[in-house]
Amino acid sequence: MSTDDGELEASLEGREEFEPPEAFVEGANVTDEGIYEEFDENWPECWAAAAELLDWYDDYDQVLDDSNEPFYEWFTDGTLNASHNCLDRHVEAGRGEEVAIRWVGEPTDEADRAITYKELRSEVNAFAASLRDLGVGEDDVVTMHMPMIPELPVAMLACARIGAPHSVVFAGFSADALATRMNAADSEYLVTADGYYRRGDPLDHLEKANDGLAGVSHEVSDVVVVDRLGDDGFGHDLADNQHDYASLVSEHEGETVEPVARDAEDMLFLMYTSGTTGEPKGVKHATGGYLSWVSWTSQTVLDVEADDTYFCTADIGWITGHSYIVYGPLALGATTVMYEGTPDFPERDRLWEIVEAYEADQFYTAPTAIRSFMKWGSEYPERHDLSSLRLLGTVGEPINPRPWKWYYQHVGGGECPVVDTWWQTETGGMMVTTLPGIRKMKPGSAGPALPGVDVRILDSAGEQVDPGEAGYLTVHKPWPGMLRTLYKNDERFVEEYWSEYSDEDAGEWVYFPEDGAGIDDEDYITVLGRVDDVMNVSGHRIGTAEVENAIVGVEGVAEAAVVGGEHETKGEAVYAYVTTEEGQEGTDDLRKRAVESVEDAIGPFARPEEVVFTPDLPKTRSGKIMRRLLEDIANDDDLGDTSTLRNPGIVEDIQQHEQATD
Ligand code: WT7
């Protein structure tokens, strides 16, 4: 996005309002509007309400320990186990025959799977026993590079059971990206799969995983491979330290592994995410606070109840899938739906077919998907009976009023509240959104901060902006689901999130998520997008520096500047401006190599939409690349003031080159 204030303001205009549908309010989990005041007055003790949703082995002493800010601790000295909370306690409560996971593979001739809580618990036990057998101990980081198959949540919960933090690397990430993350986490174990299906074809995943393993700088002790493709597989032989998942599980069938009592502050998992520098950030989440947070927000915002069937279209490889496919819904004992493939295979009504078949109560997706649905047309949802739906959700990027209203009308039939949930990998779960049974909706605005969450919009001087003005989103009180640190890098944690607006001497710690936002006179927050050098492509966070590094590594390239340009369905698309070395032409071949290098370093989802060769890059007098200007050029906007350009003529040159490549 651009940080130009006039532009920010313009995008706040023209919102309408919708009251929560009455039929929804009647059965909603939360309907007492007193909750906002109550949480304010009773903070931080109010968060006992979140911890109460869980089973604890040892009670906690203190809700919040803030003696070492900003290294906050929640539910101190409490002990619990996430796998017990997501599985055993439901079985023990007599709900073992209820379906925990409904899995839908992409091929239409393959039977869907219904995995009950009892079955899931026994497979998690068997795999936990297998991992122990392989030598995985408490606090060993186990990496998962897996597609959307049931074995992924099984592996996550098996790790949680034995106290081994998982680090899930989205299956679309490249071999290099996998290696970088395994190296950063010193992870000696990998769980992966032979492949998966995409648009009807089997896709070789193990080859990529093996390439990644070749780039790991320490010894990898064991690799577990799920055979997803069967006869469609690519015939890879397993290496000596590679084990077939099914064989391991059958060897350990019937075994029970006692869930390890984890301290509330013990790490549940790591998730790498993109930041301003090329180095991914290892976001560390703690067991007690995280699980409380995702359970409480699943209950209050997504309105999940134990007998609900809940469908989130995210990939478990990203935080949305961790929090709101796996941990939140399973902790509440609901049925969570997992779909392996793309929404338009074999036809553009695949998701609606799934909603209808399993009578989903909630549906949670991203604006990029909603924009595609809208483009495809209302005939696809109209082909199906979607009347089971009670609530709709969106996450990942700002949603414009038009797709919001389309979603509300054509998917929700005007009878489901839409929760536009703002949060991040770092926040663990939702932070800003309407409570669907209480607050009216304003399309385009996420809504007020959740009860007990203190969000303020500040200008660059640190003053709160007036309603209607734009500024920077900041969080002024800690919350249980917050990241605890960046893995093995406390310094970067403080630097990245707590240095911009905190007043250390005054003991005021302010979390800065690097988003721009506006606020209205009813405290509704409109999130405008990131203000750092991170792009949001189809809801995926991609650092411009990561893409630039990949392009600069290509022979013949001198410099690269990467920006996010507006894109109809993706939200943002990657635009790369590249200068070549002396004597090197900007050829199609060089362009191809630049694109391939990005795919190799990150993954196909980061592929540049455009690679524009230019004789120079616009820079300030101090030599900093003027991204704003490139963004404007990418968006065909007014170029603004170019007087600070070291080389003003360059702007026109770039435009001409861009036109030539259009
Ligand atoms: C960034 C976080 C939250 C899980 C998926 C993405 C943007 C997220 C919204 C929203 C406007 C949003 C922000 C945020 N974002 N939700 N409802 N409205 N923007 O997690 O990869 O950590 O990305 O996504 O810019 O900082 P993530």
Write the layout of secondary structure elements.
Elements: H1 5-10, H2 22-27, H3 35-41, H4 48-51, E1 62-65, E2 73-76, E3 79-80, H5 82-95, E4 99-104, E5 113-116, H6 117-133, E6 142-145, H7 151-162, E7 166-168, H8 175-185, E8 189-193, E9 195-198, E10 201-204, H9 206-214, E11 222-226, E12 242-244, H10 245-251, E13 262-263, E14 267-273, E15 281-286, H11 287-300, E16 309-312, H12 319-331, E17 335-339, H13 350-358, E18 362-365, H14 367-376, H15 379-382, E19 391-395, H16 401-411, E20 418-421, E21 455-458, E22 470-475, E23 485-486, H17 490-498, E24 515-519, E25 525-530, E26 534-537, E27 540-543, H18 544-552, E28 557-567, E29 571-580, H19 588-601, E30 610-613, H20 627-634, H21 650-661
Write a structural description.
Among the domains are: 114-260, Rossmann fold; 534-661, ANL, C-terminal domain (GMP Synthetase, Chain A, domain 3, 2-Layer Sandwich). Helix 5 runs parallel beside helix 12 and helix 11 (287-300) packs across helix 12. The strands form eight sheets. The chain has an eight-stranded mixed β-sheet, with helices on both faces. A seven-stranded mixed β-sheet has the order 5-4-17-16-18-19-20, with helices on both faces. It has 662 residues and is α/β, with parallel strands linked by helices. It is 31% helix and 21% strand. The protein has 21 helices and 30 strands. The radius of gyration is 24 Å and the shape is globular. The protein binds 5'-O-[(S)-butoxy(hydroxy)phosphoryl]adenosine.
